[in-house]
Amino acid sequence: MFKVNNDWESALKHLQLSLIDTSPSTFSKLEIKFHIAHLYEVQGKYKAAKDNYEQLLKDKELPTHLKADICRQLGWMYHCVETLGEKSSRENLAIHCLQRSIEADPKSGQSLYLLGRCYASVGKVHDAFIAYRNSVEKSEGNADTWCSIGVLYQQQNQPMDALQAYICAVQLDKSHSAAWTNLGILYESCNQPRDAYACYVNATRGGDSANNNVPSVSTSVSPRATQVGMNPNLSQRIKFLQKL
């Protein structure tokens, strides 16, 4: 409960106490250690999180589902956290960890999606497409995956395929700001200003949710806006298109 309410210190204190408590518990000791490592991660204490995750992976009694979760968290940290090393080295480690996660849990659509993101970031487009497609097969209702597929298609100059992918994303999540923004950029590039305008307006209504980390086609328009005033670039595009 403390963890859910972002009371990190209280959560850590109680989790550490539960490790030495001998009474029956809902979670195993290994699961408690995983939650402690994850607490360090969400607090931005990445070195401590990495050390705890890696220590857990050395445990011979680690259950498969926990190994999959740990490798996924560790892999995505390597991808995102610059302080964990040089970029090319981090990307290789990220891909390796995510592959281990998928080996432990082949049905994990989330790990496959994150693997696709890592492949895309290093220019392995074909591998990224395969990972995304496999992710869709495992978890069809993932708007982030469809948005990322759209970005890849758009970067490969396949606008119709990109269009279909973005539409899938916004059908699954009508508040997906990144997908609406990228769809608007696509419509503008195809000289469809009215459709672009509608998409940008929808993007400003999107919530500040997990899709903030989804890739965007253009760095000039951020997918993070929750309202027009919070995103000057998006606001400018809307004002410009209103005049047409």
From TrEMBL:
Primary localisation category: nucleus
Record keywords: Nucleus, TPR repeat
GO molecular function, one term: RNA polymerase II cis-regulatory region sequence-specific DNA binding
Biological processes per GO annotation: regulation of gene expression
Residue ranges crossing the lipid bilayer per the database entry: none
Keyword Nucleus attached: yes
Protein origin, superkingdom: Eukaryota
An annotated GO cellular component: MLL3/4 complex
Annotated InterPro entries: Corepressor-Demethylase, TPR-like_helical_dom_sf, TPR_rpt
Entry coiled-coil feature ranges: none
Family annotation (PROSITE patterns): TPR
Start-end of each TPR repeat: 143-176
Compartments it resides in: Nucleus
Family: Belongs to the UTX family.
Descriptive protein name: Uncharacterized protein
